[in-house]
Amino acid sequence: MGGFSSIEGDVYSYGILVLEMFTGRRPTDDMFKDGLNLHNFVQMALPKKLVQVIDPMLLPREAEEMGVAAVAIVATEGEDDIDNEIEVEANSIQDFRHIDADLQKCLLSILNIGIICSMESPNERMSMEEVIKELQLIKKNFDGSGIRKGRSSQAQIRGA
């Protein structure tokens, strides 16, 4: 955000990097103008439009086959922040019912870390110690959910 190097600036950069990696968008993309930026774009979309902002490469094959990868996103910004809106153009209605609930929680949690770390005010950002704790918790929940690469959950193995 300009100025001298600081830990808070590094946290901001980390947050933007997380948002870049999970959305597949860069802060310099043409869609980000007139006050709209990557941080606001993701923040406005969550949680209801998760599928539309997440990089399709991160979604399960089933979601991609249902046309989620072809969703076009148009971001618009009104005169004041209250009018900010993200419009989704698609051939069919897409929502996050096509994604496993555990995967939804995982993606939402990670994107929320990116949003909090990239808050404009350094006082509103998470510390990296908090980020590590949150990421370890997400990993623990993700590992225990059985949603990784065809791995069966304990309930599936036991026939429940």
TrEMBL record:
Domain of life: Eukaryota
Matches recorded under SUPFAM superfamilies: Protein kinase-like (PK-like)
Record-annotated Protein kinase domain positions: 1-138
Gene3D superfamilies cross-referenced by the UniProt entry: Transferase(Phosphotransferase) domain 1 (1.10.510.10)
GO molecular function: ATP binding; protein kinase activity
InterPro entries according to UniProt: Kinase-like_dom_sf (IPR011009), LRR_receptor-like_kinase (IPR051564), Prot_kinase_dom (IPR000719)
Coiled-coil parts of chain: none
GO CC terms, sorted: membrane
Family annotation (PANTHER family): LEUCINE-RICH REPEAT RECEPTOR PROTEIN KINASE EMS1, PROTEIN KINASE DOMAIN-CONTAINING PROTEIN
Entry protein name: Protein kinase domain-containing protein
Organism: Fagus sylvatica (Beechnut)
Taxon lineage: Eukaryota, Viridiplantae, Streptophyta, Embryophyta, Tracheophyta
